[in-house]
């Protein structure tokens, strides 16, 4: 598991996640990501943060294999709290966060980008919440920040995905990059434009915009997670997670 931070341009920090094969993060990974984003935002030389990933996709959510091989509820509780910490870190970062998304953005990935200030995505990016198929709930709070209510609900209930182009039409994606190879440059271009503003005013603006949001995203997401615990206690969550792990094993994944 690797979370790294670099500063390739003046005033811009890039936080990069690299956890092969699909960036499905273990419990420690969510906390590492939260710490990296928070630290980048606290750096007074930084005026914008780009959140990106290496590998086959941006983020595939939690590491379900870790959850299933850990007895008791420790991994479930850790994943829920770790996700909550990472999502909150993006939302509460002291400076604007630009999410640079390629490939798959699923589950916890939606929690990250839904709490970002702007999204730049490559044409190959797809977004979705397959939570019901994994025996869980959550991140509807964040998907609802990206899509109109009825579209969000249909996507949530069906577990389907939407393309970056579709989200661009709905206004959630600011810019489309032709490929994953040009994605970071596009995200850095937007971040650099933001970072050209006064750093003190940007920090005030971020706090002010969060303050006028109609939904408390931290509380709303934790409310959702309560139903994940209920699904787990009922036994239905384990059945779906086991089915997912067995299917992946059969595919050699």
UniProtKB/TrEMBL annotation:
Molecular-function GO term, any one: lyase activity
Record keyword Cell membrane present: no
SUPFAM superfamilies in the cross-refs: ClpP/crotonase (SSF52096)
Pfam families from the UniProt entry: ECH_1 (PF00378)
Keyword list, A-Z: Lipid metabolism, Lyase
Database matches in CDD domains: crotonase-like
GO biological processes: fatty acid beta-oxidation
Keyword RNA-binding tagged: no
Family assignment from sequence similarity: Belongs to the enoyl-CoA hydratase/isomerase family.
Record protein name field: Enoyl-CoA hydratase family protein
Source organism of the structure: Streptomyces diacarni
């Amino acid at each position: 598991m690797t979370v790294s931070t670099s500063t390739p341009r003046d005033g811009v920090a890039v936080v990069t996640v690299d956890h092969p094969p699909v960036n499905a993060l273990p419990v420690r990974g969510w906390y590492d990501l939260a710490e990296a984003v928070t630290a980048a935002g606290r750096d007074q030389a930084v005026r914008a943060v780009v959140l990106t990933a290496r590998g086959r996709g941006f983020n595939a959510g939690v590491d379900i294999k870790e959850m299933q091989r850990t007895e008791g509820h420790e991994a479930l509780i850790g994943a829920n709290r770790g996700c909550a910490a990472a999502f909150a870190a993006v939302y509460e970062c002291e400076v604007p966060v630009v999410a640079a998304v390629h490939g798959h953005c699923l589950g916890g990935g939606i929690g990250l980008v839904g709490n970002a200030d702007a999204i730049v995505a490559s044409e190959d990016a797809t977004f979705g919440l397959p939570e019901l198929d994994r025996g869980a709930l959550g991140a509807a709070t964040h998907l609802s920040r990206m899509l109109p209510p009825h579209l969000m609900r249909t996507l949530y209930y069906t577990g389907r995905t939407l393309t970056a182009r579709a989200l661009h039409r709905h206004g959630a994606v600011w810019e489309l990059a032709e490929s994953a190879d040009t994605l970071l440059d596009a995200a850095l271009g937007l971040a650099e434009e933001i970072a050209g503003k006064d750093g003190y005013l940007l920090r005030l603006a971020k706090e002010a915009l969060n303050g006028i949001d109609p939904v408390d995203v931290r509380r709303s997401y934790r409310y959702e997670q309560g139903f994940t615990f209920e699904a787990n206690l009922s036994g239905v969550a384990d059945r779906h997670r086991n089915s997912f792990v067995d299917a992946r094993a059969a595919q050699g994944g």
